[in-house]
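ok here's Patatin-like phospholipase family protein:
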Amino acid sequence: MTFRASLSVPFGLALGLGLCLGVAALVAGPEPAVAAPRQKLVCPKTLEEPGAFADAAEHARYAACLRQAQARRARAAKRKQDGKPAEAAAAAAAAAAAEASPREATGNTRPGGRDFAAADQAMAAIPGIPDARFWGDSEADYMRVLGGVGGDWLALSAGGEDSGFGAGLLTGLSESGRRPDYAVVTGVSSGALLSPFVFLGSSRDAEMRDNFMALNAAEVFEDRRTPESLLDTWPLREFIARRITRELIDAVAAEHRRGRRLIVITANLDIARPVAWNMGAIAAAGTEASAKLFRDVLVASSAIPGLFPPMMIEAEAGGKRIQEMHVDGGLAATIYAAPDSMLLAGATQPLPMKSLTIVVNGKLQSSFAVTDRSLVGVLGRSLSVGVKRGSRSTAVLAAAAARRSGVPFNIAFVDQDFDYPSRGMFDAAYMKALFESGVKQGRSAAPFRSGVPGAAEGPDAAARARTGATTEGAAAQAGDTTAR
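and the structure:
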């Protein structure tokens, strides 16, 4: 299966993911028929987050101890809340069982729901929220939902832990007083996790920073296989449940009613197409089910296939409930500004925004690095190369489409000379340094470039690339441009 035209843009990412999963299958081997006996877990009385992990075994021990501590707290809370001996004993037994048993894999909902055909998928909708989503590769759907919004648009790319750059850049723009009130914000993968806070504006900068700084490997995954992945992301699911509060979701709904739009991209593996989730419409539904869907979409957008488990999302087709399989939106596009068909040279539909700004959470080019001969080393390097190639390709096409449409274009990315060392996955010191680098760039007189360095963008492209010409962002260029 292929993603129609959508695969053409992020080919580097698709290649990177293919390499990752192929290596993972070869190195990890088949799931053993009988699990090896578990060693007794010994945890310290006080569990302190290390910030970075020496190896996968250390991370696994920390994650297991964290679960154990959470189970103890749950039992204590139950005992305090309910003084009845029988109910307290039952609660304690349930907590102990949860501690002893493997957690439910991320994305599991209920048995069944996987018996459906292409015709069912084509008509499937989210029960009670008919405008919850549209096909991300459909020009007609895109224009119907976003064509009349106008204003300044911001696209946040994929990037994993490098998304600290985007968080810092937007914070720096706020501090400089030059941050636009973006009418549309789109997010892919880790960019999707930032997107609700960015969408809500400068007042959420401190919350965004605190959430980002609180993120570490133990808050993202447990080093344990599921039937569908090498790692289990129940910690990320719980992290999002804690951080994406009902108050935040209600605030997104209020902005949606004002006419602004927040879009998050996932990839539907069943029909092999990108899905654009209208997060404000989901938030505006105002139910517990819609709040759960809001959070599930964020988890799904970061579900790297094969590495992390997919998210199963329930939809309805002709009165029948089905479970769709959704994974990382980066499989379709590491950046989302418009359907691929609108970015290509032969496109006839102009882009509808007043200005387009892309924040690339990472560098645009890979640097030399001797890859570690380990599963994690090969996976990490392959993903990094794929994401950078995909992001650069999409940015080049988006810049060209913006130029043809008469839309001012801005792009920011991690400086190629940034070389702060990372000691492991989600290393706190590395992420802080990257965040501070973004803040510094956001405060600067010229936080954005007006084109992708080295890309052919017209007669003056070579001169711009040599001089490194920049712009002060959407606010600086938008003044002479009529809103579409």
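+1. Confidence is low (pLDDT under 50) at residues 1-39, 94-105, 458-484.
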